[in-house]
């Protein structure tokens, strides 16, 4: 392989990596776990529920966000992606917060299909990287959670 071809390949690889990094955090994430409590993934569900504070008010909103709008599974990791459809089928299931400490920090884990057919692996993701608290509502990539009673 010629040196010019190697340089081109490296340059393209670096450009693709940089694009992935910038898109990963585009319009998302703001340490929501610092302003939301009672984080929960209902059993058998793909949504995140929480009670979030409204900036400058004593009011709290109970909200639920469909995480299919926020994540995708690559087979080896859960990563932020708009409309990633990570849940069900060949994706992930059984999402939870492993313990109270991870729950407080917003770190979720799911059992996800790997690149080997039929094999599952627990994958963790820091939801603070992709979910925000906007006026008491959970939000990612412009999708706003629904208010719960």
UniProtKB/TrEMBL annotation:
Keywords of the record: Signal
Residue span, Cyanovirin-N domain: 32-138
Residue spans crossing the bilayer: none
Stretch forming the signal peptide: 1-18
Pfam families: CVNH (PF08881)
Protein name: Cyanovirin-N domain-containing protein
Species for this entry: Aspergillus avenaceus
